[in-house]
Write a structure and sequence with these properties.
The chain is α/β, with parallel strands linked by helices and 410 residues long. Helix content is 24%, strand content 23%. A hairpin with a 4-residue loop joins strand 11 (157-167) and strand 12. The chain starts with 9 loop residues before the first helix and ends with a helix.
Length: 410
């Protein structure tokens, strides 16, 4: 597939030109003449930001600034032999012609103005011809906006990056799958949050997924990057081993011999795998940018990780979690959680209504609410009508989980 930017059809170009001349509209989500594409990165250092905080591609909030207040946009991108310009929705920028940026150290290019009295939509261009992909960025008067764009790459990449990762803690070896977002392919200055997801062989590839029915994580994140609804992120998916029940359960149950190795599995993730990931990939390593997520027993161990390893995993996604395990011991663990801030920053829970533990997950959501988690802010609990306990429905709910846990990309 060609990486070249496709031109807009002539009738769309004419429509855009007419709209600009009439001064009655501003560019749509894909920018003036920019076309739709995968969202680049950026972070507003003033007000604003997504639900997850510090979202790549985040815009600053609205409002007016006092006369003389400086508004700054910093573009971080290695242009090579190309040039970077900036266009925008109002003076001192326009959508018709690019404004040159001031080059600085470490591939940073700056635009500053004191003339802004209302929020400004903007987009960088390469050689004043190729628009950055994804929706427009927005900066408020007096704010500073950090932008990590990309211009060419259309989709993220995924692979079984590490076929044999050994664990001293567990005494075994497994493959680990990795998804890298679109911006990572061309912008070495960008850094990304990380989502650790269990059952890695089920996440991307129909050839390796259970029942040839993968989650298609890449589709959810690529689409979210393109329309700006999901912050770009790295996904790390360690495969399960033959000891899946043992590794994904936090306590030993007499009904399942060999169970209860969950804390050792989490030590593998934290002490061994995360260290490798942070050393070799462009990550944001802090707890606010580290998500753990899974389904069924993977949801159980994710929720357990959130309350026993909150200094590492700041955000938890538990899809159809096996809350029933060992007499619903997870409810006791959550209820005994240490006071904030030693808790997950956000928790996503869901289930279906067909043999999917709805009563147990409802009780789990209530346990989080008792701790002070608020629906729509720090807690999301989704019940999908008619949904059963399988990958088809987890795949359907995954984009919503990512939107809540990662926040928007603009």
């Amino acid at each position: 597939m060609s990486l070249a930017r496709l031109p807009l059809p002539r009738h769309l170009l004419a429509a855009c030109a007419a709209a600009l001349l009439a001064c009655t509209t501003t560019p749509g989500a894909s920018g003036s003449g920019g076309g739709a594409g995968a969202a680049g990165g950026g972070t507003a250092t003033s007000s604003g930001g997504g639900a997850a905080g510090g979202a790549l591609g985040g815009g600053s909030g609205g409002g007016r600034a006092d006369a003389g207040t400086v508004t700054t946009v910093r573009i971080h991108y290695p242009p090579g032999t190309h040039t970077l310009t900036l266009r925008g929705s109002r003076p001192p920028l326009s959508w018709n012609a690019g404004v040159a940026l001031v080059a600085g150290a470490e591939d940073t290019f700056t635009f500053s103005t004191t003339a802004l009295d209302a929020p400004l939509e903007l987009k960088p261009l390469l050689d004043d011809a190729t628009w950055s992909r994804g929706p427009n960025y927005t900066v408020a008067p007096g704010a500073t906006l950090e932008v990590y764009p990309h211009f060419v790459t259309q989709k993220g990449t995924w692979s079984r990056r590490w076929p044999a990762v050994s664990s001293t803690v567990l005494g075994n070896t497994r493959g680990v799958w990795v998804y890298l977002p679109p911006t990572a392919a061309e912008n070495a200055r960008a850094r990304f949050p990380v989502v650790y997801m269990h059952d890695g062989q089920n996440l991307f590839d129909p050839q390796t997924a259970y029942g040839n029915n993968p989650w298609l994580v890449q589709d959810a994140l690529d689409q979210g990057a393109e329309d700006g609804t999901i912050r770009e992120a790295i996904v790390v998916g360690p495969e399960n081993t033959a000891d899946r029940i043992g590794e994904y359960t936090p306590t030993a149950s007499a009904s399942y011999p060999g169970s209860g190795k969950g804390d050792r599995y989490l030590r593998f993730l934290v002490e061994e795998l995360k260290a490798k990931v942070d050393a070799e990939l462009p990550t944001l390593p802090g707890r606010a940018d580290t998500v753990i997520a899974g389904s069924s027993l993977g949801g159980l161990i994710s929720a357990h990780a959130g309350v026993t390893q909150p200094e590492t995993f700041g955000r938890v996604g538990a899809l159809s979690p096996s809350t029933w395990w060992d007499g619903r011991v997870l409810l006791t663990t959550v209820a005994a959680t240490r006071p904030a801030p030693a808790r997950p920053l956000a928790v996503y829970l869901d289930c279906g209504t067909v043999d999917d533990g709805q009563a147990d997950t409802t009780a789990l959501a209530a346990a989080y609410r008792t701790l002070g988690y608020q629906d729509g802010a720090t807690l999301s609990f989704v019940v999908q009508q008619g949904a059963a306990h399988n990958e088809t429905y987890w795949r359907q709910r995954l984009p919503g989980a990512f939107r809540f846990l990662l926040g928007p990309g603009r």
